[in-house]
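FAQ: What does the model actually see?

It sees only this:
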Amino acid sequence: MKSKLLLGLLALIAISFAACKKNNGCSRSEKAWVMDLSDSDSCGLVFRLEDNTLLEATNVNEFQNFENGDLVWISYKETAGASLCKLGTIVKIRCLTEREF
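And it is asked to produce this:
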């Protein structure tokens, strides 16, 4: 009896931890903030990661419109290309979704 109770408790704990994993629709994503630099020459949206790395996306127009300060999950791949803003790493976005906090 005690072993069934212990097994049930362990299963409940495992399910609870699995439910806490981020499920944002983007695999291997990172937290980022949207920065709208369109008021400066040749710049548009730039993404700032938690470690303050800046990302300039070559395909940002393929995704929904985001505004300055929006919180997002971003999955990307570094790519070759010229930097328009000369601020960050050039990337191709694989997935971009909103996040709450």
